[in-house]
Amino acid sequence: MPKIFDDSNTSTDAPSQTLSRGIRVLEILADARVPLTIDAITAELGVHRSVAYRFIRTLEQHGLVERDAGGRIRLGARLAALASGVAHDLQAEALPELTAAANELGMTCFLVVLDHEECVTLASVEPRHAVATVAQRPGTRHPVTVGAPGKAILTQLSPGAWPVGTDAALAAEVHMAALRGWAESQNEVIPSLHAVAVPLALRGRRPAAIAAVYLPTDREVASVAERLIASATAVRSALDG
Amino acid sequence: MPKIFDDSNTSTDAPSQTLSRGIRVLEILADARVPLTIDAITAELGVHRSVAYRFIRTLEQHGLVERDAGGRIRLGARLAALASGVAHDLQAEALPELTAAANELGMTCFLVVLDHEECVTLASVEPRHAVATVAQRPGTRHPVTVGAPGKAILTQLSPGAWPVGTDAALAAEVHMAALRGWAESQNEVIPSLHAVAVPLALRGRRPAAIAAVYLPTDREVASVAERLIASATAVRSALDG
DNA sequence: AACGACGCGTTCGATAATAGAACACCCGTC
DNA sequence: GACGGGTGTTCTATTATCGAACGCGTCGTT
């Protein structure tokens, strides 16, 4: 079971210990993907049970965690409400564009932003006959060095800011992507699926990308990229205009 | 500008003051819907600036907030990653069903759960020719006493657990919805839109509902409800079976 | 230019919030 | 009935936190 969140913050002590531990409760719960007992959280946190108990009651008051019938802890629905505020203007502008692009292309289209060397999918829209339904759900994360969206995002970063695992082959791909304005990938993030991504650079915002996934086909890749570029341009003019 | 989050927790002092304040930073940011300065957050929190500063640095380390070019604070992308863990098994089971229902009905279908007297939309899928694109985005909240999903959810609660604002008319509607297995609403949550919702009761989980919105039409409402019931049954058997 | 208003980041001591031990309880089950 | 695993509460020493004070840069304005 791979860890979703990196909890190796023993070296870098957070400015606020209590807040950091409380957030780690949320990370542990998201990581577990199944309701946990207080004792399990206690063990994972490495603190006394009464401490974890106090955290959980506080998180409960804010609706960020809930308890199921057996008293186990799970993430609360209001966390989803909080997350809807993440780049909500970007999402508001991008969603109609994603929908239009997805329907015109017949492909799942999604919006990706950079988050500390990782790509996070903020929104995704599926076309009618969806084949990769569960593939890119909002909140999905994967390294920025993998996949078309990652390359499209890397074109917006100076090579010095690239993550350490960036090899020459990837650098070449990013370079080409920067020149022609779009990136592609095959079987990288999702096996047997291809992807096209275009960069979406916005003022005062983390690098982003708009992407589409599709089954290997004889579709003209460049035309897909053109369609995505149109959407990206529309979004950019709406937000930065 | 209506407040999204109720920050009237001056009476109910949270068990962990620090954690509660840190979470309120997130709520304030989600409420503002625009990047804030540290001073603005400080004023809203009612604490000293050095305190808010410490919170923000901690939140920043966890990726829950980011800073734009001007140093202003906004919610971070990793918050979306956290939120994807909310009822992720329910979402995983419901999304394909929502997609199928949305395409077959030609309506936007979405999944709603109860959160402390409010409905929270966890996932929504739009059909090809979407008309209410921006209407029901994940994370949207509205009172449980309004709209078809709310009624479908109220059928799963004992009347004693209903919120205070529940009048007789609503009670009658909920009663009928409980009898026939689905609820409907007109122009309640979204003006000029109708909605149908069916309850989705799951073991050890908050009451939920599957719903569809559509423009006023001569479509047979009962047939829409039947389709939603089929999806709800499929989800229920997958999770509780 | 000088000024004030506004913003950020840091240091530091007193204090209050926290940490963790200990205790009481409930519920299965062996 | 004892046991193990779980929860919730109370209490005190300690420690993390709080908030005042300070320094600094950057705007606009007079």
Automatic annotation (TrEMBL), chains A, B:
**Where's the HTH iclR-type domain?**
16-77
Which terms are listed as keywords in the entry? DNA-binding, Transcription, Transcription regulation
| Pfam families in the cross-refs | HTH_IclR (PF09339)
| GO molecular function terms noted in the UniProt entry | DNA binding; DNA-binding transcription factor activity
Q: What domain of life is recorded for the organism?
A: Bacteria
**What's an example Gene Ontology biological process for this entry?**
negative regulation of DNA-templated transcription
InterPro entries for this protein: GAF-like_dom_sf, HTH_MetabolicPath_Reg, Tscrpt_reg_IclR_C, Tscrpt_reg_IclR_N, WH-like_DNA-bd_sf, WH_DNA-bd_sf
Q: Which residues form the IclR-ED domain?
A: 71-241
Annotated protein name in UniProt = Transcriptional regulator, IclR family
Name the species this protein comes from.
Herbiconiux ginsengi
